[in-house]
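Exam revision sheet. Question 4 asks you to relate a sequence to its structure. Input first:
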Amino acid sequence: MAKSTAENTYLRLKTVLDVLTEGVWSGDALNAGQVLAEATARVPFNEHEAELLSGGIPRGHKTLTSATAKLVKAGWLVKGRSGWTITEDGMRATVAFPDADSFAAALDAGTPVPAGTSVPTAPEGFVRPVSAAAATLAVPAKEEAPKTSARKAPAKKAASAVGKAAKAIEDAVEPVVKAVRKGKAAAKDKTEAAPAAASAETSAATEPFEGPDVETLAQPEAVAVAGDFNTILGAPENWAPQYDEAQMEFDFLDQLWKKSAELPAGFYTFKIALNRSWDENYGAFGTFDGPNHELHHAGGTVTIRYNHATRDITIN
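Answer key, structure tokens:
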């Protein structure tokens, strides 16, 4: 009997850690796309997960990408522009929770890795396994099965799209990274103020495993309302996109990032900052590194919405 999406996703999350652990043993640096492609190749999609959404990305791939936030929250994975890095606790988790059931239970409950669990070392004579994903993606187009047979093996068809989809996400980020390097030095200073927090993710991004059955614009990993009222929200300081208190929540149905808060009457300014840093931020009129948004507030609840497709901000 085919496993459910949730069961498969937990298996793939554990496989993500296994793949990264093998990378540590072999000294190979893997980017996010390679890790995800390998995980989905080792744990193939069921028919439901293999369905290609409108963007050409398998449903299961989208689900797994969102679910990796659980690994970050647990402290087992660190995401950065240079790639994904497994922590020592993440490596120890593969030993402490070796089967799918114990791994899923620990991840959901936030169970820490038992003290005394050793960091696994490479078995004697270890050779990194031949990438199942690479083998799938290396098949030339002319050797692919006819379209008539693709319906009988949707998982295989979807697997060949995983690497392509993952690479597209990676490529979409790269132009921003290059543009930002020419940005203001002040923004760079703010980023360096909290390097450890820059890769954290909000817990809201971890649920559920299944979103709407529509493919959408690739979204940032996190979006923050960073301004002169962050301390009112409970953050240690203002203009600080790295803190949880500044993070917005993504509404899959509306495709909008939202933040509601109780604010005293007053005049406030803020910007929208992506991925818990100032590297990519948007001000008034959706301008990159533009002037501050202004909020003249009469007091009470205010909701700020950010549309990543248009960079528009609405406030009410």
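Marking note for examiners. Residues 134-156, 172-207, 211-216 have pLDDT under 50 and may be disordered.
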